[in-house]
Amino acid sequence: MHLSKDAIGNRLQLERKQLGFIQDDFARLLGISKRTLAGYEGGTSDIGASVLARASELGVDVLYVVTGFVTPRSTDSISPDESVLLDNYRQLPTEDRAGVTKIVTAMSAMAGNYQVGKR
Fold first, then answer.
1. DSSP letters along 31-96, please?
2. How does pLDDT run along the chain (119 residues), one tens digit per residue?
3. Co-location of 63 and 79 in the same domain
4. Does residue 106 form part of some domain?
5. Which domain holds residue 29?
6. Is 51 domain-assigned?
């Protein structure tokens, strides 16, 4: 777990981008200035609980932003295809799981979507 302002700011920025917000719109929805948001994302300012609460309402995984650990998702939120994939993955031996993880991580990175610990 990395709690530095830089790490928290980086994760906040990743969440904002993943949700498709530009800084101007995100700051406005949070009720803060773009400059304040830039301070949070740049690691020069501490983000408060009230801003994090508003961010959560916009879809930000606040646990991830603060701790680096992803909030577990309900199995109700995965598609049937994802469920089959997960079931098949769970049936693999440990050494094969590691290989699958490396392959999927590399493919996601090539697509520009990879984020450590993300959904």
1. TS-HHHHHHHHHTSSPPPHHHHHHHHHTT--HHHHHHSPPPPPPGGGS-HHHHHHHHHHHTS-HHH
2. 668 999 999 999 999 999 999 999 999 999 999 999 999 999 999 999 999 999 999 999 999 999 999 887 766 677 888 888 888 888 988 888 888 888 988 887 787 765 555 44
3. no
4. yes
5. 5-67
6. yes
